[in-house]
Amino acid sequence: MDNIRQLSTAEDIEQQAADWLVRLDSDHAPSQQDLQALKEWMQRSPAHTAQLKRLTKYWHSANLLTELSFPLPGSQRPGGWLSNLRYQFRQLLTHGRQASATLGIAFSLTVAVALGLYFNSGAGVSGNGIYQTRIGEQNSITLVDGSVILLNTNSRLQVNYEHNQRDVVLIAGEAHFEVAKDPNRPFVVKAGQGLVRAVGTAFTVRMNPQALKVTVTEGKVALRKFEPQKVETNSIEPENTQLTNSDTPAPPVPPTKDRGYLVQGQSVDFQPQASSGLGNPIQQLKQHDIEQQLAWRQGLLLFAGEPLAQVIKEVNRYTKLDIQIIDADIADLSIGGQFKVGETQAMLKVLETSFGIQVSRPNATTVHLALN
Questions:
Q1: Which of 5, 275, 302, 341 is a plausible cystine mate for 292, CB 3.0–4.6 Å?
Q2: Which CATH architecture best describes the domain 299-371?
């Protein structure tokens, strides 16, 4: 059972965080090796990063922090009252060894230094954990390696960075990924039964009921079916044990192979459950097609002659209203235009005035569309 990793208790993580802060609080700037070791420690679990962040709540003069220049590797440490506070902090840690509000300003200040060193610029950088958006919301997440994830409406994903691989699980919805180049750490997105693997590229993944829509805007990605790895049990047999015919071990399961590849300007509705291939043909998109598909990144919905039924299906993703077409005669009506995400009422007004559609509201959450 050597492959089972023992989880640290909250007290252990707190003690480790305190040890890190003492280690950083020296007369010399931390080395690159120190910073790398700190990164690895913080990436072990969200609790490690949260423990350092939690301590900053004791700092009540947040505006002052923005005016301080925290040292980067190779720079000199500031002196004066700041050094005195750090000295007090060291005394509290080495004698009390507990993280509490009694550490006060000195404790919080050193936490801010540690986080600043870890994140370089600090602001807007996120680590492992679960991120989500509500209906109509969009959110940008910058990860510790510089990769950027843009979450679309009603989406949810989990980030799990490790030392040899960057794993993201898209649980629901849609996300656009701008991946920082790192040949030694593949960037893998799991969505349903599908896997999308990249090194340095930009692509969008959208979870649909029957397929996984993948669109590449830069670089190249590989697509394959997700196959959970089987856990191998290593048992020690006596030297005189013999295998009978019925005990013949099963042949090893071959690793899953890539089903196909997409390059810049290509898109596919990937069906991992298909017996082979991608399940659907690869589409070669023109620039205006890409701009239309990914207009949501600018908070817009673009339509260029799509049937009303398809337009309403898309609009319903961004609103808590349930918009229904109750007149089959208008379902195939071609719709063109640009609408801002969240401005559903304005779009309904345009349907009334420009397309001759009757808009009625049987209740507060339902909208009916019919021929005027």
A1: 302
A2: 3-Layer(bab) Sandwich (3.55)
